[in-house]
Design goal:
Blueprint lengths: L2 H12 L2 E10 L9 E9 L2 E5 L8 H6 L4 E4 L2 H10 L6 E4 H8 L6 H9 L19 H12 L1 H15 L2 H13 L22 H21 L3 H4 L2 H10 L4 H5 L10 H16 L21 H4 L1 H21 L3 H4 L2 H9 L7 H10 L4 H19 L1
Parallel strand pairs: 1-4, 4-5
Antiparallel strand pairs: 1-2, 2-3
Helix pairs in contact: 4-7, 5-7, 9-11, 9-13, 15-17, 15-19, 18-19
């Protein structure tokens, strides 16, 4: 899309009315990172626009134009990071997936929601294609346009249903929290999330995972491909467990077969060798310093009173979620329940528990619905 075309889209959407439906297509599994490769917009009076963010990497003018408009997204937290990268940040939003959860729908994928709420079937045949392909085939573009075709209609129907159930205020609190949330910090030690990591017991083997993961990530970023296409997690774990002494031994491991060239094999062997040569003082620790309470399975031994509080609080929150016909994690996150029970406030009063829940990020509607239950659970175990 040329600059002149983008300018016409900005003007059209500025002069349109009502909420704007927004969607983004990424190339997960094909390209490095989570950047957007297609942006879809629809608004009453402007119609549908498909924008190529590769050709137009700065959409901040469009974002500012729509700044005072409510944005309608499905599973907003998935798309917001890549939208922010190109200058699009909603001040207000309506998340149709989250609305579906709060309204008690069992299936909240976009296709399922459109079908159950509006009675239309969306064609989802191109959901996993490589959206970095250029030019994008016409059938893919038609599919992408349909993703925003009915999004505002879905929003309106879900708003009415939430109003009927007395949950619309709750939803608005949730949407405001999503829109105002800062970008999450980079994950610490992301290599620890390598699939199969539970098999790796020794610190030097863990160092090999770290070296192989870091090398793979640098190659994937340089080539702009998904890390899994450079080297699979399974292959990383195989090499870390075996700690092969040379390229020949490495090439005999699963994931390093005949299709891998000598240069690539030497690259991975060098990573293993670096891990082998590290002094003990530079080897990674068996586990990260925990941020928060230990795993609940250990509570009975570490702190039986905390374990009893957790059992009582979980049961109460789950029962209330069932009464409200919404997922327990949407009523109050399991992490918040665990932290509250592991370190309850010094005074287990409504005021003390309210302050603790707010510090954990709970919204006011969540506090209102769970406060009496949590106070009772904590007081019972303190008695």
């Amino acid at each position: 899309m040329a600059a002149e075309e983008l300018s016409r889209v900005v003007d059209a959407f500025a002069n349109a009315s009502g909420p704007v439906a927004v969607d983004a297509e990424r190339a997960s599994g094909y390209r490095y990172g989570q950047r957007a490769y297609l942006i879809q917009l629809r608004r009453e009076g402007a119609g549908t626009a498909l924008i190529d963010p590769v050709a137009c990497p700065d959409l901040s003018v469009l974002g500012e134009t729509l700044g005072g408009t409510e944005w309608v997204l499905h599973a907003a937290t998935q798309d917001l990071p890549c939208l922010r990268e190109i200058g699009m940040r909603p001040a207000r939003l309506f998340d149709t997936e989250l609305a579906g959860r709060l309204a008690g729908f069992a299936r909240v994928g976009l296709g399922a929601m459109v079908e159950s709420v509006l009675g239309y079937a969306l064609e989802k045949g191109h959901s996993a294609v490589d959206w970095s392909t250029r030019p994008l085939p016409d059938p893919w573009l038609r599919y992408a346009a349909l993703d925003v075709e009915l999004l505002v209609d879905l929003r309106d129907a879900l708003e009415a249903e939430l109003e009927r159930q007395g949950k619309l205020g709750w939803a608005r609190e949730e949407f405001a929290a999503i829109a105002s949330a800062p970008a999450p910090p980079p994950r610490k030690d992301p290599w620890r999330r390598t699939s199969g990591m539970h098999k790796v017991r020794r610190r030097r083997q863990m160092a090999a995972v770290r070296e192989l993961w870091t090398t793979r990530d640098a190659v994937a970023q340089r080539r702009d491909v998904s890390p899994g296409k450079v080297l699979t997690d399974a292959a990383i774990i195989e090499a870390a467990l075996a700690m092969p002494p040379n390229v020949r031994a490495l090439s005999a491991l699963p994931g390093y077969g005949q299709r891998m060239g000598r240069k690539q094999l030497e690259q991975w062997q060098a990573a293993v060798d670096r891990a082998r040569q590290l002094p003990d003082s530079e080897l990674p620790q068996q586990s990260q310093v925990p941020n928060g309470p230990p795993p609940p399975r250990s509570w009975a031994d570490k702190d039986p009173a905390a374990a009893a509080r957790l059992t009582a609080a979980r049961a109460a929150v789950n029962a209330r979620a069932d009464e409200l016909n919404l997922p327990q994690e949407n009523l109050l996150t399991p992490d918040s329940v665990r932290r509250l029970c592991w370190e309850p406030p010094a005074e287990v009063t409504e005021s003390g528990v309210t302050s603790a829940l707010r510090s954990l990020g709970a919204r006011e509607w969540q506090i209102e619905q769970t406060l009496p239950l949590l106070v009772a659970a904590l007081q019972a175990e303190a008695a």
